[in-house]
Amino acid sequence: MTVIEDPARSALRSYVRPSTTPAKLRLLLVGLVVLCLAWGGVAAWIVNQRASGANDVASTSETLSLDGQKIYRALSDADATADSTFLSGGLAPINGPPRYQTDIAQAAAHLESATAAAGHSAAAANLATLSAGLPVYTGEVQTARADYRLGLPLGAAYLREASALMRGKLLPAARNISAQANVQLAGASGRATGLPLALVLLVAAVIVGFALYRAQRWLYQRTRRRLNPGLVVASVAGVISVLWLVIALGVARADLLQAGAHGSTPVAALAQADTAALQARADESLTLIDAQGDDNFQQDFVAVQHRLGPGPGTLLTNAITAARGSPGAGPAAAAASAAATWYSVHREVRFLDDNGKHTQAILLVTRPGPGHSGTLFTRLDGSLTSAIAADQIVFRRHAVAGSDAFTGLEVGVIVLALIMAAGCARGLITRLAEYR
Amino acid sequence: MLLVLAAMTAWAVPGSAAVTAPSAHRLAAPAAAHQATPACDPTASSLRPTGPPQVTPGSFMAKIRARGYLIAGVSQSTYPFGFFNPLDGSTEGFDIDMVHAIAKAIFGNPNKIEFKAISDDQRIPEVQSGGVDIVAHTMTILCKRLRYVDFSSVYFDAGAQVLVLKNSRAKSLADLGGKKVCATAGSDSIAHIKAAPSHPIPVVVTNFTDCLVLLQQGDVAAISTDNAILAGLATQDPWTEIVGPVFTSEPYGLAISKQHPDFVRFVNAVLQQMRTDGQWAADYRHWVGTPVPAPPRAQYKA
After folding, report:
1. What φ, ψ does residue A305 adopt, rounded to 5°?
2. Residues in chain A with pLDDT < 50?
3. Does B115 touch chain A (CB under 8 A)?
4. CB neighbour list of residue B230: distance below 8 Å, 6 or more residues apart
5. Residue from the list A89, A148, A168 with its beta carbon closest to the beta carbon of B1
6. Which of B88, B122, B236 is facing A152, going by the closest CB pair?
7. φ, ψ for residue B226 (rounded to 5)?
8. Are strands B90-92 and B82-85 parallel, antiparallel or unpaired?
9. Mean pLDDT calculated for residue range B249-270
10. Would an 8 Å CB–CB cutoff place B132 in contact with chain A?
């Protein structure tokens, strides 16, 4: 700190070089007013940076990340629904097509809001891929359904092609959106909570405070008057603005860190786990419908299962760790045990299918019922979804509180800086007047 | 995407060998000369039945009966031979009816079957590994395949042709030089496309219906495979037609593991029964249509 005091002191001295007291007073007047205004400018700029970071955390990035996740969920479900409609045969199950339509409508809605939130961010390219690919996908599914209506096996080929487009291009794009949004979120959160700007603010406050103190001490020695009302007002305004800044920035930082630790971090980990679970579930259905003898989908299931866990370093275990201490912790733990049960039923499905009991395998996957694969997956997916929802509430509460802490601060700091400048001017002009 | 990848894989392995190698395995004599096996006649390579179909104790048929169902490797996308009927979720077709007849001979019930849908290139591995008891999957009896699996007697005579859109000017593979022509991985057809002197570009997919998707979307100029399969595709798209001469002979057989010669003889007995009692003709009329030819004559090596 002394390093900074010395140049400040010498700077003051060099300005106070003039020999006559009025000249010195005039210089002091100009110096203090400029310093107060500069302080107001710097403080307002820093507050603006932090507030916009906090605002991005609470609105843009989080919206985008959630939209990405919801687009993935809707598209993955649409694909699985379209596939299982064929798998079950007969006239499409009553809850089949409407569910597909709902999924596509939801995907389109989230795609629109994500596109609005994304602007020119990194996610824009992936959103463009989705916007261009979604009509192609639905077109191919429609062709498949038209062929299906006519009883043509060709429909299954169109469905496979649609599914390949979905899994090869659209779902990865949706996954990337969430990932990119999470990077954006981390950036915004860094801007809102980073320490370097807070240090700059502290240094500026010390400089201003020191200058005001020295000015009043000098005036006191020169004029033998205890207090200069103008400078006192300026000092009080300065103290208020520093206190306000410290409290607001501190509260916002605590809230935003809390929003990250117990909100967006577990949400991101849980969402990753849920995405993997949805992928594995689609693999499970597609292995049965595709039934080409190539076991690509089953291989993918095994790969995803290893990634999903539970187990050290897996997505589910990471999500549980991230959710520790948050309201999502309970459902996250339930998800892990549901996953293990689901895997064991999946093994049963594979055993049936591998031993020529294709029909029974299909029933175990598509029909609802206790101990059926669909039921257990729903438990896993439902646990993860409710964990995400719970931690999402935590995130939202803290992010909004963090963002709200900046309410009025920018204007307040500017007004207080103007009051400081006015106080300094008033106080010194009164002194100067005594020399006329 | 999958299809495009498959197509790219096909280009990445250009048929330099296939271009020079003759597509001779279709013709019995050159194929025999080409391979180490002494004399090989695909149409007379099976085992003679010992009488009417009978489940003898200790036979492979007895094992199947004890299990309670026959496991058959079939196609679910090759109309009208083996395909998934979306209306009732069942698997149907001419190949499938062959399997029903075998199940009926074993169990007295034609429906005691578990169908396992497999792709063309899975047919031999599935038979060899015992994953299926029998493959009924528009499978041509080839000398090179006889080295790995046994076949029943011929139950259908097909031959390769070309399917194009009705507005296409191409009339055969000769007109398709430099154009993309589609067939499935593991099928004999892809070798014929590679071997064609006009050098069409082979595009490899999983099922022949995938080929039709590509043809409809304008991604390939033609499909080349057995006329029986092409006719099934043409049924699904009236804007396509089969053109040109039949340029190969494709005798279909049911594939069975070499470990079960008793089952081969049993299946041949069933087929023989079907030829004589009119069941074969009835199935042909139902799936392929009229006129119904005489059933392929059964010839045996032993």
Report:
1. -60, -40
2. 1-3, 93-95
3. yes
4. B161, B162, B163, B223, B242
5. A168
6. B236
7. -60, 140
8. antiparallel
9. 95
10. yes
Among residues A202, A200, A211, the alpha carbon closest in space to that of A5 is found at A211
Asked if A153 and A40 touch (Cβ cutoff 8 Å), the reply is no
CA distances from B267 to B61, B94, B98, B99 (A): 10, 16, 9, 9
pLDDT at B41: 86
Q: Fold match between B42-156+252-287 and B160-248?
A: yes
* Yes or no, beta carbons of A152 and B210 under 8 Å apart: no
Q: Is the pLDDT assigned to residue B31 strictly greater than 90?
A: no
Residue pairs between chains A and B whose CB atoms are closer than 8 Å: 96
| A168 in reach of chain B (CB within 8 A) | yes
Tokens standing for residue A67: 């939209």
Alpha-carbon gap: B283 to the closest alpha carbon of chain A (Å)? 19
Buried (b) or exposed (e) across B162-196, using 16+ Cβ within 10 A? bbbeeebebebbebbeebbbbbbbbbbbbbbbbbb
Q: Give me the CATH code for the B42-156+252-287 domain, please.
A: 3.40.190.10
Segment B174-185 mean pLDDT: 92
Per CB-CB distance under 8 Å, the chain B contacts of A89 are 84-90
All residues of chain A having their beta carbon less than 8 Å from the beta carbon of residue B79 are 152-153
Distance from CA of A146 to the nearest CA of B (A): 12
Closest-CA residue of chain A to B80: A153
What are the chain B neighbours of A357 within 8 Å (beta carbons)? 114
Percent over 90 (pLDDT), chain B: 63
* B132 contacts B71 by C-beta, under 8 angstroms: yes
Q: How far is B259 from chain A (nearest CA, A)?
A: 19
**Max CA pair span of chain A:** 110
Integer Cα distance of B83 and A223 in angstroms: 106
CATH classification number, B160-248, choose in 3.40.50.720, 3.20.20.80, 3.40.190.10, 3.40.50.2300: 3.40.190.10
Q: State the pLDDT at residue B130.
A: 92
How far is Cα B157 from Cα A157, in angstroms, rounded to an integer? 26
Which chain A residues touch B132 with a CB distance below 8 Å? 356
* pLDDT at residue B215 greater than cutoff 60: yes
Looking at every residue in chain B, the average pLDDT score rounds to: 85
What pLDDT is recorded for position A180? 86
Rounded CA-CA distance B229/B163 in Å is: 10
Q: Which amino acid is at A64?
A: L
ipTM of the complex: 0.75
Q: How is chain B split into domains, by residue range?
A: 42-156+252-287, 160-248
- pLDDT score recorded for residue B293: 92
Is A129's Cβ below 8 Å from some Cβ in B? Answer: no
Q: Which residues of chain B neighbour A88 with C-beta distances below 8 Å?
A: 89
If DSSP codes are grouped into helix, strand and coil, which group holds residue A409? helix
Q: Do A164 and B76 touch (CB under 8 A)?
A: no
d(CA A106, CA A122): 23
Q: Is B60 on the interface with A (CB under 8 A)?
A: no
Are A151 and B237 a contacting pair at CB < 8 A?
Answer: no
